[in-house]
Specification:
single chain; 446 residues; mainly alpha; Glycosyltransferase; 3-stranded antiparallel sheet; binds (2R)-2,3-dihydroxypropanoic acid; hydrolase activity, acting on glycosyl bonds; Trehalase family glycosidase; hydrolase
Length: 446
């Protein structure tokens, strides 16, 4: 365990670039939004202050409308090292109407809102440093604005849930869940862009060229409408249970944060400002309950025994078993029958945990599109397994959580902290020394 701890720390130290961490030195040379949140959760055991800065750097690139961009570009990295590069997104010009910040280039789409949860966990690792630096006090209004962007601009279905408008937004780029809604999107012409990911990753582990041509089309359409949600066509719009579950978990974290900073902001307990903050905590808890009710109402499928994505354009559920449909396990206060069914599904034939596999795959083991090595079409990912572990533990499934914890740590070490692994054999794919793999293995070792 101590050798592994040492190796994981080394990855995090190597991938730190001064104010934030790159997911991988080769494949992803900038700052990614949800990667940073997961990295901070591990980095808090190495340097609580760096973990705080990781989140601060990301949120410094927040847009005026509250969105937190999925990539914050490092200006020192050559343009051709990653596609789509800043000259594709053109955030400082095309994003001006939505309040893109000046002096930093970002993408215009978002990733799952894990940040408030991460901020809370980072704070708890070293409350004294956090208080001294005013970490939560400074981050809290930004996190509130971020959630508000999602629950207002992104309630495209009109039922209180957040929609994603690009397959990169839920973070599970080429999940079979997107095949059907994506098929409606006209691909960008093949010669109109050049992928950089294939310079570093094997084509068999990555999304296909046709996927990419559609990703490019969707992002360009959004950009060409100035990233304004009310004006963009959003031909791809999906309510995803993973994104919404993470929002709910983060909304609970915001309540804890509001409680925590209340006495710090205003020492006088009877002042109005302090009452306002306490009221905020209640408002966050209420919002979390409302989101939870909407999640169950809109996305729970009792027959499948899991949550399903809903295609907002067709209005229909997407009948594919993606692992995002299990992530609501981290949501407190789900109905008991839902929890029991989810637990059966995690360990049943489709996801096989503790039976045919030791790590939860990203997609149905029996699904028609299952591919054990292609990105989000089957491989097991470490952030997903960290979340499932947390969910199992929260529901008192201690033995299963312990077994999963051990499996995550073992697979991370054996694969040199691979980006993703074959859920059946543990063989590593994608990049190595991947930051969140190291960070989350470290977190589970604690
Ligand atoms: C990529 O570039 O592969 C990412 O997953 C999208 O941000």
């Amino acid at each position: 365990a101590s050798a592994l701890r040492h190796a994981a720390r080394r990855v995090l130290l190597r991938n730190w670039v001064g104010n934030s961490t790159v997911p991988s030195r080769s494949l992803y040379p900038h700052q990614w939004s949800w990667d940073s949140a997961f990295v901070a959760i591990g980095l808090r055991h190495v340097s609580p202050e760096r973990a705080q800065r990781e989140l601060e750097t990301l949120l410094a690139a927040q847009w005026g409308d509250g969105r937190v961009p999925h990539i914050v570009f490092n200006p020192a990295v050559p343009l051709d090292a990653y596609f789509p590069s800043p000259d594709f997104w053109r955030s400082s010009t095309a994003g001006a109407a939505a309040g893109a910040p000046e002096g930093v280039e970002t993408s215009g789409i978002v990733q799952p809102p894990v940040h408030a949860l991460a901020a809370w966990l980072v704070h708890r690792a070293d409350p004294a440093t956090s208080r001294r630096r005013g970490f939560l006090r400074r981050l809290y209004p930004k996190l509130v604005a971020w959630h508000r962007y999602l629950t207002t601009h992104r309630d495209l279905g009109g039922h209180g849930l957040v929609s994603v408008v690009h397959p990169w937004e839920p973070g599970m780029d080429n999940s079979p869940c997107w095949d059907e809604p994506l098929a409606r999107v006209e691909p960008a012409p093949p010669g109109s862009f050049r992928r950089a990911d294939l310079d570093h990753g094997s084509a068999a582990d990555r999304p296909t060229d046709l996927d990419y041509a559609r990703y490019v089309r969707l992002a360009a359409d959004y950009r060409d409408h100035d990233y304004l949600d009310a004006e963009a066509p959003h031909r791809f719009a999906v309510e995803d249970p993973g994104v919404n579950a993470l929002l709910i978990a983060s909304e609970h974290a915001l309540a804890d944060i509001a409680d925590e900073i209340a006495p710090e902001v205003v020492p006088d307990p009877v002042s109005e400002a302090r009452d306002a903050l306490c009221a905020d905590a209640d408002a966050h808890r209420r919002r979390a309950r409302e989101l939870t009710a909407a999640l169950v109402e809109r996305l729970w499928d009792a027959e499948a025994g899991q949550f399903l994505c809903r295609d907002v354009r067709s209005g229909e559920p997407i009948r594919e078993r993606g692992v995002a449909g299990l992530l609501p396990l981290i949501v407190p206060g789900l109905p008991r029958d839902v929890v029991h069914a989810l637990l059966r599904t995690v360990c049943g034939e489709h996801f096989g945990l503790g039976g045919t596999v030791r790590l939860v795959p990203s997609y149905d083991l029996l699904g028609h599109a299952f591919d054990p090595r292609r990105y989000w079409r089957g491989p097991a990912w470490f952030n997903v397994n960290w979340l499932v572990e947390r969910g199992l533990r929260q529901h008192g499934q201690t033995a299963r959580a312990d077994a999963l914890r051990a499996a995550v740590v073992t697979a991370a070490a054996a694969s040199d902290f691979a980006e993703y692994v074959d859920p059946r054999t543990g063989a590593g794919y994608g990049s190595r020394e991947f930051s969140w793999t190291a960070a989350l293995a470290l977190d589970l070792l604690k």
